[in-house]
Known about the structure:
The chain contains ten helices and no strands. The chain is an all-alpha fold. The chain has two domains: 1-136, Up-down Bundle (Four Helix Bundle (Hemerythrin (Met), subunit A)), CATH 1.20.120; 149-174 and 212-277, no CATH class. It is globular and about 75 Å long.
Amino acid sequence: MSESHNFDFLAKIDPRVGRLARQAEDYVYNDPDACLFKLRLMIEVMTKVLIEMQLPHLVSTDLASMLKGLQRSGLLDRKQADGMHAIRRDGNAAVHGEPSTTPGAMRRLRDAHRLSAWYCRMVRRGAKVAPPQFTPPDPPAGVDPQADARRKAEMLEAAIEARRVRARDALLLFGEHEAVDAQAARLHGELEALETVAIAAGEPVVDADTVAIIMAMDVEQILEQPAWGRTAETAKAEAEAQFNQVKAAFREAEQGYRDERRRIAESIHRQDENRSS
């Protein structure tokens, strides 16, 4: 068993979740697939506890649906949601036979550690939770975390993570690492300045909902103009086609990462076998 104390604080709040976290730690070097499976199960238990406490009507056997429900309700912010979805996604891949690497499993273990502190504060309001800084558990005898194949695996996992962050940021007003308060203050200031100009010009001040409705009507009229040679339905179909192209490109890139991960995982496995023989 691992001597790590990363999740001791969690066991005091929720023994079931703490036990799954410790089991995941024990597997991270020798069986990263099992590590990811345990982490996925850990996230599922955490999600069901939160759903049952706050939104019992959303209890489901589908983890993705429950996470979306927590997001829509405002109980799960973007940072926590990204971490939980990452564990769900990689755990599902491991369950369905996609090979995993220790560096990839270690990343998800770090995510689980961060999420655990948040989870404890959610289920025990007012509880003083002071998790230790995450420390990678010691590798078993004969395992070299700095072996060439494992370094390549870490570089691959870093590339996957960076691409996913860029893809997510592209769909949001604010990126994960942006100073949201400063950006929001800037936008608010710009809107106030525009409103002042509108008043000076004698334009009526209208609320955002009204502006959105007017813009939607204008866009629909523009799209349906005969000069454009297409209807709103055609324009929508073209937009969906472009969106599908983007999704296909992401799927292709993801498959490339999976193939590379498989080759690295096989290389690590061969190295470990040669070392033990």
